[in-house]
Amino acid sequence: MPDLKRTAPFAEQARRQGRAGAATPTAGVSGADSDSHSDPHSDSDSDFNSDRDFNSDSDFDFKVAVGHLLRRAYQRHVAIFHEAMKSRRLTAAQFIVLCTVRDNDATSLSDIAKATAIDQATIRGVIDRLRSRGLVLVRRDPRDERKVRVSLSKKGLTATERAVPVVKEISRLTFDGLDADEQAVFLDLLRGMIDSDDGAEKAPR
To answer: Which residue of 45, 54, 162, 199 sits 20 to 30 Å from the alpha carbon of 112, by its own alpha carbon?
Structure first.
């Protein structure tokens, strides 16, 4: 089991960077999110850039927008997860797939995708990588040869059980700075948002 005491300073560093980034307009923006000033498709005469429309929303501060804050919190969690789990070579997606298969033995890819809220194409890649490491077993469904059933190997069960206390510590580090009541409220609010979503069909198009 990795030395999680080494992860605590990393979490503190992530928190300090997050606070510093909150005061910097470009903090946390990289890769596909980067702002490009040389975009040949930008339209300087667009309605968005007009003085009339821009000034009407001039009080908008993206640093307090829910999407930005959720993304920053997620970045913090992913950084802590990676640091704590790198010796086990498990990603967050791989871990929740292992837990899902553990709780629903001999389950189908579609059921795993539904339980984890990960698309089926991605699930196939996750299962392939776990199978290559001997953590899961994949067999044809005897009732339908077109489908496969996934179950944990003994090695996979052991890996999952040993990872659980590490992930609990990761959660504790992610919540660092919030007391127990604040953590409970935060989780309830997130569950409320997810429960009210009612499926992808309600997502804006």
So the answer is: 162
Find out whether 159 and 98 touch, Cβ atoms under 8 Å. Answer: yes
Q: Closest Cα to residue 147, out of 119, 92, 181, 108?
A: 108
pTM of the model: 0.66
Strand order in the sheet with 107-108: 107-108, 144-152, 136-141
Structure tokens at 122: 């991605």
Using alpha carbons, list the distances in angstroms from residue 163 to 18, 64, 87, 118, 157: 27, 34, 11, 20, 10
> How far is C-alpha 14 from the geometric centre of its chain's CA atoms?
16
Could you tell me if 135 and 156 are in contact, meaning their C-beta atoms sit under 8 angstroms apart?
yes
Of 55, 74, 77, give the one whose Cα is nearest residue 66. Answer: 74
The one-digit pLDDT tens for each residue of the chain (205 residues) are 445 555 555 555 555 545 444 443 333 333 334 343 444 444 444 444 444 454 556 788 888 899 999 999 999 999 999 999 999 999 999 999 999 999 998 899 999 999 999 999 999 999 999 999 999 999 998 888 788 999 999 999 999 999 999 999 999 999 999 999 999 999 999 999 888 775 544 555 4
